[in-house]
Write a structure and sequence with these properties.
The chain has about 120 residues and is mainly alpha-helical. Helix content is about 70%, strand content about 0%.
């Protein structure tokens, strides 16, 4: 079996670059809620670090984050189509990389129940 650690590392890097780019766009455009949006986007960085360190919870968190980003890109009113497509593409690539690296985590085994 080949080591797919590269997929998790690239998912983490691409996720962090995506968050940094979105923060830049939000700061550039301003708005009333810019501070809150920047704070929420910055909360993605610990998940990216955790994926690079192969933490299963961070993997699941980043997966949910990217799926939510894909939903937001599809339903975002008033956002230019180019930005929506860019977000959708990057999020889909990150989800694909996360799926490639999923085999690196151990299988979940439930405790056995003794029938007496």
């Amino acid at each position: 079996m080949t080591d797919r650690g590269w997929a998790l590392r690239w998912a983490a890097v691409l996720g962090a670059v995506e968050a940094a780019a979105l923060i830049t766009v939000v700061v550039w455009n301003g708005g009333r809620a810019a501070g809150l949006v920047v704070t929420m986007l910055a909360m993605k960085f610990p998940f990216c670090v955790g994926v690079a360190r192969r933490w299963a919870a961070a993997w699941f968190g980043l997966l949910l984050w990217e799926l939510a980003g894909m939903l937001a890109a599809v339903t975002a009113p008033g956002t230019p189509l180019v930005l929506r497509l860019a977000e959708l593409t990057v999020a889909a690539v990150v989800v694909g990389l996360l799926a490639l690296g999923a085999s690196l985590f151990p299988d979940v085994r439930l405790p056995q129940h003794d029938e007496r």
